[in-house]
Each structure stands twice: as C-alpha cells, then as structure tokens.
Structure to design on (531 residues):
C-alpha cells in the first residue's frame, strides 16, 4: 500500500513563517451576550489546507462569518499574513455549501462577478477568467446557465469565482458535502490539487469528518454545545499523514486520523 | 421501448383542442337557446349577431380602442414607475417598509369602482381621471410583487457579495433586481389586465371616447349585441397585453428557458 511512503512536509514549512491566516483568542457571540465560541486559536500556513471540524450547531458558521470579516468578534483578532483584518470584509474569499451562483448570469459572468464588482469592464473580466476554465474543469461551460450544470460543476464554478476574488486565503463552509458520494471524492481531490497548484491557503469548516480528513493536512476539532450554554473550544489538533495514494480514503493513515478526530468530537 | 409508467403530459394539439371544443360547444348551446326562444332575443343576442355587430362596428370600435389603450398604457407606465420607486425605497429603508406595508395591503381592498366616480368628480371628463384610476389600480400589485421579490434574495448571496466588497447599489443590481424579476412580471401581468378594466370603468362614468363610453352608449340604445362586441374587444385586448408581457418577460429572463428545458429532461 506504500503507507507513509511520501509524506508531504506540511506544517514544518510554514511553522516559523508568518501564517497566511491566524485567529488569536477568538471569542464570538450571536447577540453580544451568549458566547458561542471561546478562545479559539487557528493558524493556516501558506499553501496549507486546514479543517475546522465540529458537530452541527457548534458555531462553525459564526466562526466563518467572523473570519470573513462579516462580523466583529467579542474578543480576539484575525490576522492575514500578519495584518490585522478583524471585522473587515473582502480580504479573504469564501465559499459555501450552496454554490450561490446567480441564476440570471451565465457561468462566465458569475465567475467574473468579483472582478466586475471591483470595477473591471465586463469584456476585460471575461478575458481574464476564460483561460482558467480549462484548469477548473469547466471548459465548454462558459456560456451555459448555472441550471444547466451538475452539482459538481457548479461547485467548481463557485470555486473559480472564489479564486477570482483575488485573495490567496479561502474559507470554505462544507463546500462539497451536498454532492453525491462519488462526485464528492473526485471534487475534493481536485480541489486539494488546485489549491496546491495555485499556491492558495484554505480553511475548510465542516461537520463532515470524511470531508475534513480527505482534504486537510491539519484538523482543528471543535467541541462544545453553545445551545446548552457551553461555548465551543478547540479540543485538539489532528495531523493527517497525506500519503499519495489513488484511494487515500481507504488507507490506514486516513482511518487513523478519522479515528482521532472522532474521539476528540466525543 | 416499454410503455412509460408515468402519465405523459398532454400533447400540444390536445392542450389547444380540448378548450377550443368546449368554447365552441358553449357557443352552440347559447345560439340554440336563443334560436329556440328559451331566452327572448331582445334580452340576449346570439353569438352570430354579436359577430355581425363586431364586424359592422369594427372601425368605430377600433377608434374607441385606441383611446382606451392609450389611457391604460399611460396609467400602467406611470404605475410601474411609481411602484418601482416605492419598492426600492421600501427595500432600502426599513422604516419606509414598516410605514407603508400595511397601508398597501389595506388600499388593495378598496374597489376601483368605488373611487372612480370621485375621480371623475374631481378631475373632470378628460383622460386624466382614467389615467389616475389606472395608476391607482396598477401601482399596488407592482409595488407588492417587487418588494417581496427584493426580499426573496438569498441572504447568503448578499453576504458573499459583501465579502467581494460590493456596494449597496451593486448588491441591488446584481442580486436583488434579478431575484425580483419573476415576481415583478407576475405583478405586471395582473396590472396589465387591471389597467384595461380600470380605464373602461372610468370611461363608464363620463367621457367622450373609449370602449367604456361606447358601452354606455350602446347600452342606452339597447343594442346588446354591440355590448357583447365591446366585451369581446376588451377581453381580446387584455389577453393580448398579457401575451405581450409574457414575451417581454421571456426576452428579459433568457435563463428561464434553460431552466424549463432542464426540468423537462
């Protein structure tokens, strides 16, 4: 099986360098009273894919909104390449389980949306996006409507749009868990490859342990029950030995990491 | 291939023929009822007489139709423009929404027939009271459909656009406005028919031209065949307007065709 034969050097590279994304002592609340998430530290090294995994209702989306700058935390700060971006939207790109493609725009115009919003002319934006369709597995879809694409293709388009937001750090909220099982595996693998190739960093937030283990090199396990008055915190960090294998999902390394994550989730 | 288990959608021919046959049958019954004498002819003209009246009076009807159509179109245009402005304000300012939303609902319950005489009293016998009545009756469906259309936008889309640093105007233009198109056109379709009806009702109450004026005249001369002819013209006009709205909608929402094709597959 070639177990551990080709371990990527995941953390070591970025360990001493400035992290691409760092959350320090993040404490969040929905309404300014009830604390949902307490004292969460997360770092993502440049070029790394990390996961934040937790049960439904543990405050994942609250964290995502804070990291995206859509809300301001009660305490703590968010650093992007060392720069404080707390409460400032538009610095990291983000992508949700819902592809959020606008039904009224063709794929190429959906994908170009961040460029057009930033003030670029439509023709110029199209020219910039068009060469990327091939690499994102979307060749031939440029002028289709979103409804004409399969779920997997729509997520690819959503990711291309995310990429064109121009930020090198991407937040993903359960990006591929709505797809059917086989598509999901393919798209996740494709995603990890593209992220590496484009030199991006990504933080995937999910409740799906398989999604976490199959994509991340490090997994932050979040535990707690905010609804019961017990704020979530990071219960542990699991490193994943990403062995190069056709079916990583069947290796011992994969299962070992999955077991650890599930133990931490409790 | 095996017989499909699900019931297939009726064929195009069947969809057209079935209602057509029904209408023809009803017309035949109507003709027979009057011909046999079950209903006296001076009270109810036969369909054949109605068609004759329609043909005879065609030039006259056409000139009245132009007047009515002009009033309806002017009123509808102003109604849509006003409705748009109101809906945008309601979307933009929470206070404006809270202030006017109940008023909108209440005002929709006021029958146009009830205010028409007042408008004629205040604004005279010219085109103005007709246009104002059309504005009043079309404004509300447009405003309500647009306002709820704007609100139907997925809040996650708005969040996503905020992370792209989109301005309020850009969020409106790229997300909210397209999200509202479908409901807007439903509202417009209703408004188009209201516009014709509104103009005709206002014409009943006074004026020199228009299908409503024509109807009042022929009623006074007991030419009920001409009454029916006018009714047919009004129906046809409303249908034509609805069709026109549909065509405009198709041109404005090209993605709908793709969605329909997708569903049929």
């Amino acid at each position: 099986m070639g177990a551990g034969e080709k371990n990527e050097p995941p953390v070591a590279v970025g360990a001493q360098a400035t992290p691409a994304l760092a959350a320090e002592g993040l404490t969040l609340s929905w309404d300014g009273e009830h604390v949902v998430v307490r004292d969460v530290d997360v770092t993502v090294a440049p070029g790394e894919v990390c996961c934040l995994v937790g049960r439904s209702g543990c405050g994942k989306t609250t964290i995502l909104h804070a990291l995206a700058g859509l809300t301001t935390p009660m305490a703590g700060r968010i650093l992007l390449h060392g720069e404080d971006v707390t409460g400032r939207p538009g610095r990291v790109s983000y992508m949700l389980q819902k592809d959020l493609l606008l039904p009224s725009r063709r794929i190429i115009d959906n994908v170009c949306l961040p460029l057009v919003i930033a003030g670029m002319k439509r023709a110029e934006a199209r020219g910039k996006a068009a060469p990327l369709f091939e690499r994102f597995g979307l060749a031939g879809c440029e002028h289709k409507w979103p409804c004409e694409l399969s779920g997997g293709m729509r997520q690819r388009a959503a990711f291309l749009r995310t990429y064109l937001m121009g930020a090198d750090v991407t937040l993903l909220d359960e990006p591929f868990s709505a797809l059917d099982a086989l598509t999901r595996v393919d798209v996740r693998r494709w995603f990890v490859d593209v992220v590496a190739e484009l030199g991006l960093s990504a933080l995937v937030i999910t409740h799906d342990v398989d999604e976490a283990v199959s994509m991340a090199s490090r997994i932050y396990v979040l535990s707690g029950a905010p609804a019961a008055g017990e704020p979530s915190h990071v219960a542990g960090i699991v490193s994943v030995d990403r062995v190069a294998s056709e079916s990583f999902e069947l290796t011992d390394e994969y299962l070992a990491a999955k077991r650890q994550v599930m133990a931490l989730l409790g | 291939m095996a017989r499909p288990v699900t019931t297939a959608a009726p064929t195009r021919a069947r969809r057209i023929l079935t209602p057509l046959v029904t209408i023809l049958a009803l017309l035949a019954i109507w003709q027979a009822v009057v011909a046999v004498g079950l209903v006296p002819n001076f009270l109810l003209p036969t369909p054949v007489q109605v068609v004759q009246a329609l043909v005879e009076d065609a030039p006259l009807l056409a000139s009245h139709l132009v007047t009515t159509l002009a009033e309806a179109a002017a009123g509808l245009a102003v109604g849509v423009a006003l409705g748009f402005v109101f809906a945008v304000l309601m979307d933009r300012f929470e206070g404006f929404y809270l202030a006017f939303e109940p008023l909108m609902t209440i005002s929709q319950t006021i029958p146009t027939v009830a205010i028409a005489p007042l408008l004629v009293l205040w604004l005279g016998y010219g085109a103005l009271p007709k246009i104002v009545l059309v504005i009043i009756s079309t404004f509300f469906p447009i405003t309500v459909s647009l306002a709820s259309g704007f609100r139907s936008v997925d809040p996650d889309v708005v969040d996503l656009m905020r992370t792209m640093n989109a301005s309020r105007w850009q969020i409106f233009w790229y997300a909210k406005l397209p999200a509202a198109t479908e409901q807007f056109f439903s509202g417009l379709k209703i408004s188009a028919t209201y516009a014709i009806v509104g103009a005709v009702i206002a014409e009943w109450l006074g004026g020199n031209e228009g299908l409503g004026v024509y109807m009042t005249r022929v009623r006074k001369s007991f030419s009920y065949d001409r009454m029916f002819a006018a009714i047919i013209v009004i129906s046809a006009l409303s249908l034509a307007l609805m069709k026109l709205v549909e065509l405009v909608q198709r041109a404005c929402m090209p993605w709908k065709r793709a969605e329909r094709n997708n569903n049929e597959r």
Observations:
- The CA atoms of residues 133 and 198 of chain B lie 6 Å apart.
- The longest helix of chain B spans residues 168-204.
- The radius of gyration of chain B is 23 Å.
- Chain B has a mean pLDDT of 89.
